[in-house]
Design brief:
Layout: H1 2-7, E1 10-13, E2 30-41, E3 45-51, E4 57-62, E5 74-79, E6 87-91, E7 99-108, E8 114-123, E9 135-146, E10 154-156, E11 169-176, E12 182-190, E13 197-205, E14 213-219, E15 226-230, E16 236-242, E17 252-258, E18 266-269, E19 276-283, E20 289-295, E21 301-307, E22 318-322, E23 328-335, E24 341-347, E25 357-364, E26 367-369, E27 372-374, H2 378-381, H3 385-391, H4 399-408
Parallel strand pairs: 7-11
Antiparallel strand pairs: 1-2, 2-25, 3-4, 4-5, 5-6, 7-8, 8-9, 9-10, 11-12, 12-13, 13-14, 15-16, 16-17, 17-18, 19-20, 20-21, 21-22, 23-24, 24-25, 26-27
C-alpha cells in the first residue's frame, strides 16, 4: 500500500518569477509528485535529512509526540529504499532530567561521519506525573558524532554563546566550506525586548566539529530559524524565518547571500507568501536551488520554490505535501542519485494519520537541459545509469558543461547524492 502511494503521479505547476517577487510572468515547469506517506508515527519530529556517501537517507528527529513539552531526545532513522520505509538506527542525544533536546542541525562531514548539533529546553519540575511540562531555560548546544551511520554516538559540549552571552539555538544543515571549515546557523532571541529581537549567526568549526567559534551575523533583528547552503560556485545562501512585527507583516522567509565565504551577508529579499516558514535550502545536481517551506497560511503543508540564478529570483511557491493542521511543516529535502527528491516534514495531523508524525513526499522536477525545462519521458528514465549516477539524472549536458560540473565536485555535508 505504501509503495503504491509512491507510484501515483500527477503534475503540479511552479512559476518562475522575475525580481525575486511572487508573480507568474514566465512559463511554468511541471513538478511530478510521486507520493506522500506517513514515515514515522507518534513523533513531533522537526526532521533534518541528509544523504550519506553510501546513498542512504538519514533523518534526525525529536522522538516525542508533543510540541516540545516533554523530556525526550533526537532519534536517528535511515531509509535504504528512497524514503519508502524507515528503521531506527540510534539516539544521538542524551537529555538530562526535566529537559529535552530537539532544536537540531544535521550534516555529513568530509570524512563521511554524521554530525548533529542540538539544543533544547530545561523544564520546571513536574508537581505530579499528570501535570504538563513548562519550558524554563534554553539548553546550551552539544555536538553528537557517529562514525557508523547513526548507530552509536559520541557527544561533546563545547559551543559558543551569542551576543551578550545569549544561548544559541541551532537549526538546519551543518555545511562544509571549500576549505573544510564546518558551519551551522544558530540564532539567539531576547523575548524581553520590545519588539522581540532575533539574531542569527554562523558557528564555525575548523576541527571537524570538535570545537566551535562564533562566526558572522547572518541577519538581525528578525532572523530566527535559518538554514544555510554553500553553492558549488562558492556563494552561500541562507533562508531565515522572519517572525514579523506586531501590527506589521506576518511571519515569512527571507533570503540572504554571502559572496565572501560566509564572512558577511546581505538580504536579497522575501520570495515566500506570509505564513510560509521555516525553510530548507539545497542545490540540485543541475545547479538550481530548491527552497522548501512549511505552509501555515490556511493551505497547510509544504511548498517548493526554485531559483535558477543563485537565489537572486525565485519561482512562485507550489505545494507538494498537504497536512490538516498549521502545526506542521519544518521540511528538509535531499536529492537521490536518480534525480528525484525526498522531502520529510512533521505534522500534528494529516489525511494519512491523525496524530503527530514524520511525513515523507517523493517528487521530481523536470529535466533542465541547455536552459530549457522539460518533463522526463520514460525513455529518459530508462537510459543506462552511468549518467544518472554522475549528474543526478538531470539530462545529457554538453561537453563543456560536463567539464564544469566535474571540476566543481567537492565533498560536502549534505551528502554526495544531494549536493556536490
Amino acid at each position: 500500500m505504501i509503495r503504491g502511494l509512491f507510484a501515483v503521479g500527477f503534475f503540479l505547476q511552479v512559476l518562475i518569477a522575475p525580481g525575486g517577487r511572487l508573480a507568474g510572468a514566465q512559463p511554468a515547469p511541471e513538478v511530478l509528485k510521486l507520493g506522500q506517506l506517513v514515515a514515522i508515527k507518534d513523533v513531533c519530529a522537526w526532521p533534518k535529512l541528509v544523504v550519506t556517501p553510501g546513498g542512504e537517507l538519514v533523518a534526525a528527529l525529536y522522538n516525542q509526540s508533543v510540541h516540545g513539552v516533554r523530556p525526550g531526545d533526537v532519534d536517528v532513522y535511515a531509509s535504504t529504499d528512497g524514503g519508502v520505509t524507515w528503521s531506527k538506527r540510534g539516539t544521538a542525544t542524551r537529555h538530562a532530567k526535566d529537559s529535552a533536546r530537539f532544536n537540531h542541525a544535521l550534516g555529513v562531514t568530509p570524512a563521511g561521519e554524521l554530525l548533529l548539533v542540538s539544543g533544547g529546553w530545561g523544564y520546571d519540575p513536574q508537581p505530579n506525573e499528570k501535570a504538563p511540562w513548562h519550558k524554563k531555560k534554553l539548553l546550551r548546544p552539544t555536538t553528537s558524532r557517529s562514525t557508523d551511520g547513526g548507530r552509536t554516538w559520541s557527544i561533546s559540549s563545547q559551543f559558543p554563546d551569542g551576543k551578550d552571552g545569549m544561548t544559541l539555538v541551532p537549526f538546519g544543515n551543518v555545511v562544509c566550506g571549500v576549505d573544510g571549515t564546518l558551519r551551522v546557523a544558530a540564532y539567539s532571541f531576547n523575548p524581553q525586548a520590545n519588539p522581540r529581537e532575533d539574531i542569527c549567526y554562523t558557528a564555525m568549526s575548523q576541527d571537524n566539529g570538535s570545537t566551535w567559534t562564533l562566526g558572522s551575523i547572518v541577519g538581525q533583528p528578525a532572523a530566527n530559524e535559518t538554514d544555510i547552503v554553500r553553492l558549488r560556485d562558492g556563494r552561500w545562501l541562507a533562508a531565515a524565518r522572519n517572525l514579523g512585527r506586531p501590527g506589521g507583516h506576518k511571519a515569512n522567509t527571507d533570503i540572504y547571500a554571502s559572496d565572501d565565504d560566509a564572512k558577511t551577508w546581505r538580504l536579497l529579499g522575501t520570495p515566500t507568501h506570509e505564513g510560509q516558514h521555516p525553510a530548507d535550502l539545497m542545490q540540485l545536481a543541475d545547479g538550481r536551488v530548491v527552497l522548501t517551506v512549511g505552509d501555515r497560511n490556511g493551505q497547510f503543508g509544504v511548498s517548493v520554490l526554485l531559483s535558477a540564478d543563485r537565489g537572486a529570483t525565485w519561482s512562485a511557491p507550489k505545494q507538494i505535501a498537504r497536512t490538516l493542521s498549521g502545526d506542521s511543516g519544518y521540511p528538509s529535502t535531499a536529492q537521490l542519485k536518480d534525480g528525484s527528491l525526498v522531502t520529510v516534514f512533521y505534522a500534528a495531523k494529516s489525511a494519512e494519520y491523525g496524530g503527530y508524525h514524520m511525513g515523507a513526499v517523493r517528487w521530481r522536477l523536470p529535466i533542465r537541459n541547455e536552459g530549457v525545462f522539460h518533463r522526463a519521458s520514460n525513455s529518459d528514465r530508462q537510459k543506462p545509469s552511468r549518467r544518472a549516477s554522475a549528474d543526478g539524472g538531470t539530462g545529457a549536458p554538453t561537453s563543456p558543461e560536463r567539464k564544469r560540473r566535474r571540476c566543481r565536485r567537492r565533498p560536502c555535508c549534505r551528502g554526495a547524492a544531494s549536493q556536490s
